[in-house]
Amino acid sequence: MTELLAPSALDRAAMLLRQGELVAFPTETVYGLGGDATSEAAVAAIFAAKERPQFNPLIVHVPDLGMAEKLASFDERARSLARKFWPGPLTLVLKRAPDCPVALLACAGLDTVAMRVPAHPLAQKLLRACRLPLAAPSANRSGHVSPTTSAHVMEELGGRIAALLDGGPCPIGIESTILDLSGEKPVLLRPGGAALEELEKITGPIARMEPGAQEGAQPRAPGMLERHYAPSLPLRLNAAGVAKTEALIAFGPKPLPGAARTLSLSPSGDLQEAASRLFAALRALDNPAFSAIAVMPIPERGLGLAINDRLARAARGR
Ligand code: TXA
Ligand code: MG
Fold first, then answer.
1. Bond prior to 87 in cis (omega within 30° of 0)
2. How many angstroms is it from 228 CA to the middle of ligand 2?
3. Which residue's C-alpha comes closest to atom 30 of ligand 1?
């Protein structure tokens, strides 16, 4: 049985984590499946609960930069980014610190560690109450979309984890931006909640890893397997028309007419609103009653990059 905990039961959640149990918790991006990052057993339990391939490293969550500096090696570039964007939806991949206590399994054997300081008040309180770095992938089973409400988490992981801390819907609704700073040049491993243009104001030009570029080569972000974002229905992107058997994900003031069912990511054309609704829409429309999900074009700017990246993966990855 998975305990559903109200925010007032935060101490219970912290105690369970200290006992090595798994607790899902809200962040400003998506719900995370949290476990003690210093415990290989807890990390292994995370992989088991997610049925995730073990070569897939996890993001380690800490309450502030001070804690992060105990686990990873920061240079000035990393520190300026952290000061500007933390707490917030930016994950930095850095070299592990010499005495880094993070379980090797959490880094999938790499000499790097992905660090994130979430801004959600409940995540912040939980990290401070349990006094542990928390390994937390998105709280979905492997190959499913990331959960943005506690109900999604229950559907995915109910019965598999000790508890779920309910913080309502996640305000950003799309995962953190992942920036690899372990090499000389910064590389964008995953577009997400922090806009690339904003990061580049601090770092200068950031190389983008093209989706699928890692295929065949040693993956830099092994978790970015195509299958990661796959619904079971075919997904048809940049739709200019829609069949009456198809479901439609609309964007902007003029939804295409004639779909079996339509959900709009943002009638006003707001990309942030669209991001926050994306996974819920994919989930809601991934129903065998429809022949496919058609998606209207999403502008390729700001959070639109992350949305299109997710959609492209979902379309390819079935
Ligand atoms: O917004 C988020 O980032 C959410 C919330 C819960 O914080 N977490 C999340 O975690 O999306 P996850 O595990 O679903 O995605 C983590 C990604 C994976 O693609 C993984 O391969 C990559 O981060 N990653 C983790 N550690 C890495 C490392 N050392 N080097 C390269 N990529 C890494
Ligand atoms: Mg995930």
1. yes
2. 7
3. 221
50: CA distance to ligand 1 center in Å?
Answer: 13
Tell me 136's DSSP state: -
Residue with CA at minimum distance from ligand 1 atom 20: 223
Write out the chain's pLDDT in tens, 318 residues: 999 999 999 999 999 999 999 999 999 999 999 999 999 889 888 888 887 654 578 999 999 999 999 999 999 999 999 999 999 999 999 999 999 999 887 887 788 999 999 999 999 999 999 999 999 999 999 888 999 999 999 999 999 999 999 999 999 999 999 999 999 999 999 999 999 999 999 999 999 876 555 433 344 444 444 444 568 899 999 999 999 999 999 999 999 999 999 999 999 999 878 877 887 798 889 999 999 999 999 999 877 887 898 888 888 865
Task: Look at residues 1, 4, 49 and name the one whose alpha carbon lies nearest to residue 22.
Answer: 49
Tell me, what amino acid is at 275? Answer: A
Kindly list the distances between the CA atom of residue 119 and the CA atoms of 86, 288, 309, in Å, as whole numbers in the listed order. 7, 37, 23
Residue whose CA is closest, atom 15 of ligand 1? 137
- What's the 65 CA to ligand 1 centre distance in angstroms? 18
User: pTM of the entire structure?
Assistant: 0.83
Whole-number Å distance between alpha carbons of 217 and 163: 38
Ligand 2: centre distance to CA 44 (Å): 16
Distance between CA atoms of residues 169 and 311, nearest Å: 21
State the Cα–Cα distance between residues 83 and 248, nearest whole angstrom. Answer: 40
Which residues lie with the beta carbon below 6 Å from any ligand 1 atom? 27, 29-30, 32, 56-59, 91, 93, 107, 110, 112-114, 116, 118, 136-138, 175-176, 178, 189, 220-224
Please, are residues 60 and 135 in contact by the beta-carbon 8 Å criterion? yes
Structure tokens at 285: 């429309």
